Amino acid sequence: MSGTTTRVAFIGAGNMAEAMISGIVKTGTLEPQQIIVTNHSNEERLLELHNRYGIQGMVRDRLPIESADVIILAMKPKDAETCLASIKNQIKPNQVVMSVLAGISTSFMEEHLQDDQQVIRVMPNTSSMIQESATAISPGENVTMKNVKLAKTLLKAIGEVYVIDEEQMDLFTGIAGSGPAYYYYLMEHIEKIATENGMDPSQARQIGAQTILGAAKMILEREESPEQLRTNITSKNGTTASGLEALAANGGGKAIKAAIQGAMNRSKEISEQLEKVTVR
């Protein structure tokens, strides 16, 4: 995408905006001067981002929003309605509004913008900070295929991108949005049991993390299903079999399913609450 004249404006200058800016600049997807980032009044934060990545930073009131091809909403979800109202009459149908805000649906954006506005809902995860995000996108009704491809290109700068039906977004949140925390929780317990048995905590962390990384790569690079990969390394009456039996006996599988279901349900609740708050 290097060499394109595409201009991107971020409304919001928090961690997610920075993660995306970092990936876009590091991969050369866009040149720094093609990126603008804004917030309400924290000029110190904008200067910090400018010095770090070479992008343009300016307070919200000075943003020349008509010059941006893509507007990325990256503020707090509770401020989304106010933001959408403020840009509604400033943007044109050929501009794309992308939201990385939890709970903000494409229909919510479409209802608060002009009838033919192109919108895309985006759900990255925290691994975007190291360009390893699992990111889902759901295009709105008016988005052209050209702009779906543009969104995918931009978001590939922070990891892998999956186009999904919006009704699956809550499920995606339960798996990928909240998913890193499940693995961190697993790592906490690996480190704890290793330390209790005399291993250096730092070494235990490295061993556990490498084990998870290797298993993930096996799933991504091999043709076998996770179930088959598990079976392949589980010898009858062996150490792995004993560990898996203990995991099952203590509700391991049920706990994983419950965690994803719980996060999915909460994602639905957040969306519903935001919709109710903005009903006139």
Structural write-up:
With 280 residues, the chain is α/β, with parallel strands linked by helices. Helices cover 50% and strands 14% of the residues. It has eleven helices and eight strands. It has helices at 15-26, 43-53, 80-87, 106-111, 145-155, 169-177, 179-196, 201-221, 226-232, 239-249, 252-277, and strands spanning 8-11, 35-39, 56-59, 70-73, 96-99, 118-123, 133-139, 159-163. It has an eight-stranded mixed sheet with strand order 3-2-1-4-5-6-7-8. β2, α2 (43-53) and β3 (56-59) form a beta-alpha-beta unit. The model has no long low-confidence stretch (mean pLDDT 93).
The coarse overall form would be elongated
In angstroms, what is the radius of gyration?
22 Å
Give helix and strand order, one letter per element, not per position: EHEHEEHEHEEHEHHHHHH
**Main sheet record:** 8 strands, mixed
Helix/sheet category: alpha/beta
Mean pLDDT: 93
Strand content: 5-15%
According to CATH, what is the class of the largest domain?
A: Alpha Beta
Question: How many runs of DSSP E, i.e. beta strands?
Answer: 8
CATH topology of the largest domain: Rossmann fold
CATH superfamily of the largest domain: NAD(P)-binding Rossmann-like Domain
Please give the alpha-carbon distance between the first and last residues.
42 Å
Number of helices: 11
Instruction: State the low-pLDDT regions, or none.
Output: none
